[in-house]
Write a structure and sequence with these properties.
heterodimer; A: alpha+beta; 5-stranded antiparallel β-sheet; 8 helices; 61% helix; 15% strand; B: alpha+beta; 7-stranded mixed β-sheet; 9 helices; rod-shaped
């Protein structure tokens, strides 16, 4: 009897912790939104950053932090958070518009990646559901696949068996795709291969050392691919294909 | 060609200069008048001839009142092939005491050597009396020390009057400078006009020479006249100073004459005396306008105003021009009054307003009207509203804001029929792109629906894999269970079969034992089979008939063929019991009976 009580207690406690966890960012978030509405951008940023500090993430949070930075004319930071939105969530018209607007504030004009439309569609697909949703749907489909194969095994007549086999193959395909998407999303979210330049001006060198030849100069706001890391140096590639080495401190990983 | 000319010229000039250097340099001092009377002006000049000098040092001129200087001039002469250049420094001075004074040596450095002038002795005779300059006046500095006003205050002074000393910002103050004199003024000149820092000021024109009016001041009779009248509008808050007005006047004073002089006795003896006089200064406390109750349309107007709105016509055709006239009239800082620009419909073409203001100061108050004339051209037809309009001002007397608002003007604009119809779809309207006023980021997200933690993933987590294993395990388990069930089902058929043969064996045990004794064998075989059937359907042995058995088997849903088989076998057993046939072996008959029992056991319908 005592043991049952204990178990119940632990369950209740964890429930409380979970709801408290969910409650706190919501309060802070509302505070931030209210501060933003009053054009108190420092206050809004504090509230949003506090939520970010607790390790919580949400599309709205990243979007709003980006907006606050934009309002404070910190366009590099704004771009960083908009890109984080794109990394973790599928894009929206508002986000696209804000990114386009922020892009105009930067010095460097880089060609649009020709594959960006395909990439964006793929990104939207991968981020269409969150990881838990992908997982749950994947597991359900796994169950359905198993069930379908059981029907194949147990069917008495050849026609029914054929039908069941068709369905089971379809279910198997879907199950693999959905679970794969879940794994791809996890991989994408954990990857650190994109960065936004935050320093006003960055020298890009031919080798990971100060004395090497200076290839070109990029400025705040440029989205770069991080190809390789060596000590304090990163090998970066721009969307137009140029690449070189720059210091880690010049950028922040999206 | 021109260039060549220039070169020749410059060469010629150089030659001239080099010739000039040949002349010996001179440095002399001279005065314009000697002797000189007090109160007269005199010029002291130091002249450097045939040289260019620097580092001029003037002698001390403390015995004179310095009115101006040092004024520097230089000249260059070229006469009959001879050149002469000179440089001079001059002072304008006025002696103020009698006697003989010596002007000391001035020095200058020319051609690398120091040159000095000889001292000059000046004799000063008695003239008009001049007050001594104050001791701190620096000779050669050019500043003229003011004569002490109080010295003359007995005879003449200027006084500043303000109608108010505590006002709101933008409220009118009138400053009046009045001169008071006991003697007649022969001449006057304004020395220094007040600057009115922090005020917007305007002179009130005094029509003609102001009449002198007798006025009693401190028991003495003076003649007073207004010399300057200004309206002031303070532009800043705080303590503002109204500056003094400085004047030089020449008074004709009656002198104690010689009583024996007939001329003096008749006309008196007069003396003209110059006085430098200055008025007093006053300060004004300027209060800021109260924030409380300030209307949105307030734009700095202080005073007492009226506001009107006029439109030239209310019904018009598109592309016709109309005039909108906004008028503010009244008393106050009209020149500073500005209106909030009314909002016009975007389909109207508007121009900057023509602003005209007419103000007068005749009453001593800033008075008049200011008009804003807008030209509007509606480009499309329709009903439009212009306005509403509002104008507000601060009334310093009532110490509160007054807002005058006028209702919006409704305009009925008819379509311009003269405009050509370009196409079926657009009735003569030029299509325009929507203008973008400004660009800004989209508004923030106000709802955050799904929170998740960074770095936490369900896919690939232990729980995920556990679920996979669980699902897979569940189905494998189910598969095996099902398989086992099927196996079990097939097992019951076998069991029943084995059980049936067992029953047959048991029933026919006695017959098998008596297989060597034909009579007993047939008897036991028949008994065993009928006993089995009776037990099977729970029939009393006495009631055991073939019909009854067939009926029971039918009730038990046995197939007809089995009923047939059982009936035939029963008939056969009955027959061999009484007339044993030798052609069939007893073993075969036993086997046939056992088969029959097996058939009944095996083919027991499920519904039974």
């Amino acid at each position: 009897m005592n043991r049952l009580k204990n178990i119940f207690g632990v369950f209740y406690f964890s429930l409380c912790v979970l709801t408290a966890r969910a409650q706190e960012p919501q309060n802070l978030f509302d505070q931030g939104v209210a501060a933003y509405a009053k054009a108190d951008y420092t206050g809004a940023l504090n509230a949003f950053k506090k939520i970010e500090g607790t390790g919580q993430k949400s599309y709205a949070l990243f979007f709003n932090i980006g907006n606050v930075h934009y309002k404070q004319r910190e366009y590099g930071q704004a771009m960083l958070y908009y890109q984080r939105c794109l990394k973790y969530y599928s894009s929206t018209p508002e986000l696209d518009q804000n990114i386009a607007l922020t892009q105009k504030q930067f010095i460097d004009k880089l060609p649009e990646n020709p594959n960006s439309l395909i990439y964006q569609s793929w990104n939207n697909l991968v981020n269409a559901l969150n990881n838990t949703q992908w997982g749950v749907v994947g597991l359900l489909l796994f169950g359905v696949t198993n069930l379908a194969f059981w029907f194949v095994w147990s069917a008495k007549h050849a026609t029914a068996r054929k039908k069941a086999l068709l369905w089971s193959l379809l279910a198997l395909f879907l199950c693999i795709s959905i679970n794969m998407l879940g794994f791809i999303q996890k991989e994408k979210h954990q990857s650190q291969h994109q960065g936004i330049i935050l320093s006003p001006s960055v020298n890009v060198q031919s080798e990971p050392s100060e004395v090497s030849a200076q290839l070109f100069v990029i400025h705040e706001g440029v989205l770069v691919e991080i190809k390789q890391t060596q000590g304090e140096w990163l090998r970066i590639q721009l969307s137009d294909g140029k690449h070189g080495w720059c210091l880690k401190s010049a950028l922040e990983v999206v | 060609m021109n260039g060549l000319k220039h070169i020749i010229k410059s060469i010629a000039l150089t030659i001239c200069f080099s010739q000039a250097w040949a002349q010996p340099a001179t440095f002399k001092a001279k005065v314009s008048k000697n002797p000189v009377a007090t109160g007269e002006r005199m010029v002291i000049e130091f002249e450097l001839g045939n040289a260019q000098g620097n580092g001029f040092q003037a002698p001390s001129l403390s015995d004179f009142k310095v009115l101006g200087g040092p004024n520097q001039s230089s000249s260059f002469q070229f006469i009959n092939g001879r050149t002469s250049s000179s440089q001079s420094f001059s002072f304008v001075v006025m002696p103020y005491k009698e006697g003989e004074f010596t002007i000391g040596s001035a020095s200058i450095v020319a051609d690398g050597k120091k040159m000095t002038t000889d001292p000059i002795t000046v004799k000063v005779t008695k003239g008009s009396s001049v007050p001594a300059p104050s001791s701190n006046s620096t000779p050669g500095g050019g500043d003229v020390a003011e004569p002490k006003a109080d010295k003359a205050s007995g005879n003449v002074f200027i006084k500043l009057f303000l109608d108010k000393t505590k006002v709101y910002k933008g409220e009118q103050i009138t400053a009046t400078y009045k001169i008071y004199t006991r003697a007649s003024i022969v001449d006057n000149s304004l020395e220094e006009a007040p600057s009115f820092n922090g005020f917007w000021s305007k002179n009130i024109d005094l029509s003609q020479a102001p009449p002198l009016k007798p006025e009693n001041v401190n028991g003495m009779t003076y003649y007073s006249a207004v010399i300057q009248k200004k309206v002031l509008f303070p532009q800043r808050t705080g303590k503002l100073k109204v500056d003094a007005l400085k004047m030089q006047v020449v008074l004709r004073l009656k002198e104690q004459g010689n009583p024996y002089d007939v001329f003096d006795q008749f006309f008196g003896r007069y003396r003209d005396v110059k006085y430098d006089i200055a008025s007093n200064e006053l300060s004004v406390d300027v209060l800021p306008l109260p924030d409380q109750g300030k209307p949105a349309s307030f734009n700095g107007a202080v005073g007492n105003f009226n506001f009107s709105v006029d439109v030239s016509k209310k019904k018009l055709k598109a592309n016709d021009a109309i005039n909108l006239k906004l008028r503010v009239s009244g008393q106050g800082n009209l020149h500073l009054v500005d209106l909030v620009k009314p909002v016009f419909p975007s389909d109207f073409e508007t121009y900057d307003p023509k602003i005209s203001d007419q103000t007068t100061l005749s009453s001593g108050w800033m008075d008049g009207k200011k008009e804003w004339d807008y030209l509007l051209i509606p480009r499309v037809g329709g009903n439009f509203n212009i306005g509403p309009f509002a104008f507000s001002y601060f009334d310093p007397q009532k110490k509160k804001y007054v807002e005058i608002s006028k209702e919006a003007i409704e305009l009925e604009v008819q379509r311009d029929s003269s405009q050509q119809v370009n196409s079926v779809f657009s009735p003569g309207v030029q299509q325009k792109d929507i203008k973008t006023m400004a660009s800004d980021v989209q508004y923030i997200q106000t709802n955050a629906s799904s929170w998740s933690r960074l770095g936490e993933y369900f896919v690939g987590s232990i729980l995920y894999w556990l679920c996979v294993i669980l699902i897979l395990g569940a189905f494998i388990g189910f598969y095996f269970y099902q398989k086992h069930q099927i196996e079990l089902q097939s097992d019951t058929i076998w069991l029943r079969q084995s059980k049936a043969s067992k029953v047959a064996q048991q029933r026919l045990q006695k017959a098998q034992q008596a297989i060597q004794q034909p009579d007993l064998f047939y008897e036991e075989l028949y008994k065993g089979f009928t006993g089995y059937l009776a037990d099977k359907w729970n029939i009393d042995t006495s009631l055991l008939t073939k019909e009854h058995i067939a009926q029971k088997m039918q009730q038990a849903h046995y197939a007809d063929q089995y009923i047939q088989q059982v009936m035939e076998h029963l008939n056969y057993l009955e027959m061999v019991r009484f007339s044993p046939l030798q052609n069939q072996s007893r073993e075969a008959l036993y086997q046939q009976t056992a088969d029959c029992i097996n058939t009944i056991e095996k083919h027991k319908p499920n519904k039974a």
